[in-house]
What does this fold into?
Amino acid sequence: MNVMFSQTLSHLRHEKGISQRLAAQELGVSQALLSHYENGIREPGLAFVVKACDYYQVSADYLLGRTSDRSGPAGPAGGGDQTDPASLMRTADVLSQVCVDLCRKEPDLGLMFRRLASQLNKNLGKARTKAD
It folds into this structure.
């Protein structure tokens, strides 16, 4: 992992005004391990990165030093434009296939997926109108 991760992790804790001990406790790691992460001695696993992002309310891209935007890139997780037509089309394709597969195995899930697909189609219609 790069130096930016260690620096950002430490900076976020200081910005929040909490001790390393408290942050470690709330993040579910030992103080020694958090210290190692903050000093670049050890690299965390994905589960810790996700916890830290949730805890400090930043995107993984920000925590990893890939962007200076705390909310991260555009998209559903990053808070950007969720009506991007290309993104919605990819989501619709994936959702459609998942729906078909799951509904074959669990017919009760069919109604839930039909509702999700319906909402996605509404958003896609809005996105197409916006693009025109």
Q: What stands out?
A: The radius of gyration is 20 Å.
